[in-house]
Amino acid sequence: MFEQPDGRLNDFEQTFTVGDTLGIKWKAGWEGSETQPDFVDLFVCWFDSDSYSQLLIANTTTKQAGFYPWTINVTDAAVKDDDKFVLRFRPHRDPEDYNNAGPMAPSRGFYIKLASTSSSPSPTPTPTPSSTSSTVVSATTTPTSTPAPEPEKKSTNVGAIVGGVVGGLAVIALCVIAWLLMRLLRRRKAKVVEAYEVAAPIVPYSDGYGADKFAARIEPPKYPGSNITMELDGRELPVEAGSGQGR
């Protein structure tokens, strides 16, 4: 009656892993001992022993087809003790407990193995051996915490900042020095031009021929008495002296 696990295969030709989802599927009818009950409970049990059982579905029916997605949560302890399991329909009881008495419809036997890469379920008490009691367990995984990465050292960043500041100050200092030198040179040049203009004035003078010329630095010489009016005695007639001529 079971279609998953595949009822067409032999026992233990199928293997499932803790944490995987097994889509349990059955067709309508009853392929088991005695008569079909009206309501049943579905258990997963050890194949060779009734010491371990876990209730999966309570108060359902096999008079019509059904499906149940089961996330395999068998305990590590149960898998390590015995990895052979089977699904079994049993008549419904209240409270729901596993009982060997009465009708039973099993699936094909299969293996369950532990997940090699996933976190192991948290430890749960191992079931007490009993043929008249059922143990309902739920596997919970303990989340693993990832340590936070250590903060990176900032010494490299500090060194880069200090180097940038020093370089910037050096550039500013060079610019200031260049500006001061240029200003000093301009002042010196202005003073030289001013001194030259004071030391060498240009003055006009006449050469006596009616043309004015300019002397660069020295004024034309003056001779005593050449431009002074003097009274002559009566022996000589007065004659007007020309410019630049003596008596």
From TrEMBL:
Question: Which residue stretches belong to region Disordered?
Answer: 116-156
State the UniProt keywords alphabetically.
Answer: Membrane, Transmembrane, Transmembrane helix
Keyword Transmembrane assigned to the entry: answer is yes
- Membrane-crossing ranges are 158-181
Query: What ranges does the record list as Low complexity composition bias?
Result: 129-147
Please give the GO cellular component terms listed in this UniProt entry. Answer: cell periphery; membrane
User: Any keyword Ubl conjugation?
Assistant: no
Q: Where in the cell is it found?
A: Membrane
Membrane topology classification? Single-pass membrane protein
What broad class describes the main subcellular location of this protein?
A: membrane
Protein name according to UniProt:
Mid2 domain-containing protein
Organism equals Lentithecium fluviatile CBS 122367
